Amino acid sequence: MNDNKVFLQRFLLAMLGYVIMLVISVLVLKNVGQPYVRILAALLPMIPVWFGLKAVIGAVRSMDEFQQRIQLEAVGFGFIATAFLTFGYAVLVSAGFPELSWYWVMPLMVVLWGLGQWLAPRKYQ
């Protein structure tokens, strides 16, 4: 099996695990009052996220040096753009804008990483 198929299988399995663990987590958080159980339930979805992260790292390690460079530039772009946007929004919050949940940071990073993956190769064409 080629590296892309292995990555896709591992990543999709991790995301399926995430959805399952998220449902379990939400159900436990709605129905259980003990603090330690609630903390464990809240962290439960992080287990499959870890496996998804490992799948991404494995995929990047299996790439050739040029593709790794593109990924580095894309991740760098995503990181810097996320820092810029979140800091900028934090300043706006001090001016009266509504606060946003931390839940938005990771999706923003992923979207900006994807944008970086689209932008990075263009300078080599």
Main traits of this protein?
single chain, 125 residues, mainly alpha, 2 domains, 5 helices, flat
* Number of domain units: 2
**Tally the helices: what do you get?**
5
Question: How many E-type strands?
Answer: 0
- SSE ordering: HHHHH
C-alpha geometry? flat
Average pLDDT across residues?
95
State the share of residues found in helices, binned by percent: over 70%
Poorly predicted spans: none
Beta-strand fraction estimate: under 5%
Which radius of gyration do the C-alpha atoms yield?
18 Å
Give the N-terminus to C-terminus distance in angstroms. 30 Å
Structural class: mainly alpha
Profile the largest sheet: none
Care to describe what's here?
By secondary structure, the protein is mainly alpha-helical. It folds into 2 domains: 1-62; 64-125, no CATH class. The chain has 5 helices and no strands. Helix 1 (3-31) runs antiparallel to helix 2 (35-43), helix 1 (3-31) packs antiparallel against helix 3 (46-61) and helix 4 packs across helix 5. It starts with a helix and ends in a 6-residue tail after the last helix.
Summarize the structure.
With 125 residues, this protein is mainly alpha-helical. The chain folds into 2 domains: 1-62; 64-125, no CATH class.
Q: How are the SSEs placed, and which strands pair?
A:
Layout: H1 3-31, H2 35-43, H3 46-61, H4 65-94, H5 105-119
Helix pairs in contact: 1-2, 1-3, 4-5
